[in-house]
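Please annotate the following for my students:
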Amino acid sequence: MADAGTVMTARAVTLCLINFDGMHYLPQALDAAEPHTQFAEILVVDNASTDGSVALLKSRYPQVRIVPLESNRGPAGARNAAFLAAQSDLILFQDNDVQLTPGCISRLLAALPLFPRALLVAPRVLYAHNPDVVQYDSADCHVLGLMSPRNANRAAVLAEEILASTTSLVTACFLIDRTRWGSTSLFDEHFVFNYEDHDFGVRAYLSGHELLVEPRAQVLHAGGTPGLSFRPGGPVYAARVYYLIRNRWFILTKAFAMRTLVVLAPMLLLYEFVALIGVLYKGWGSSWTAAVRDYWRELPRLLKERKMVQAGRRVSDRALLKGGPLPLTGAVSSSFAERAAVRALQRLVDAYWRFARRLL
């Protein structure tokens, strides 16, 4: 097979920036994109920003095409709008706080044609404030339904730079071939924020698409969305806890086969019990209560969507699900007692998964 750095494509690419109140991020993102000559157009989908983002774009970047949304539809809705509005079938989606590094697009463009079933390819994401550390190399689907980022918070020099397949997706930046997707939308807008990318990645993988990560293509990721995003050492917002809890249940309901849910039931129930204790201990009980309420409210819709996901399934859960370390942030293991509880849970999950995966 040819090396991913030597195969090129002449197809045009649309850069789609997703923006909400990111006026302070946009100049860095657009200036970093300017040297990449592969872009036939640059599109900014604005989620009803109120900080002057649109005025900035019109005055400083007149070459940018703006798609203004009347309301904030969240990252899922903005990406769906961009998916329809892009002039090119090759679309590079990028969050407003992401900066491309030299050679990134060339690497992504070279990787995608190497795999006939590949729907998309994501780059390695480095922390903008500390580019020697990997934030993640996209992600897999953990057996508990969590998103499991690859090489999270690992020194870049210690992380392999090998083009690989994943079973989920982190959408800070990714290149997708629209001709390989059989629908007019990508993301479930009911997720609002968090795990909408995990949901899409899992559904795409189950439907038979291959998802790639190219660590030699690299981007820098800054501060995230105020009030929602988590960074090591920073606060954990109640809204983030709510979405992580509720949206994980959405994914379990829609994506996991019935046999999988039955086989994994003891482990999933154990995790829910431990997670509830942790949520109450951390003072996030109101977020958990709201998640339960809204999950049950959404259950009829989820069951209808489940039928569609399962009908289109081409891949087993045994191939989808990955074991390994519990993908929990430092915010839930900041004390000795918390770390001990996480280690105990890890051992139980590992032991059960070694037994259960043979039954899927």
Summary: Residues 1-8 have pLDDT under 50 and may be disordered. The first strand starts at residue 13 and ends at 19.
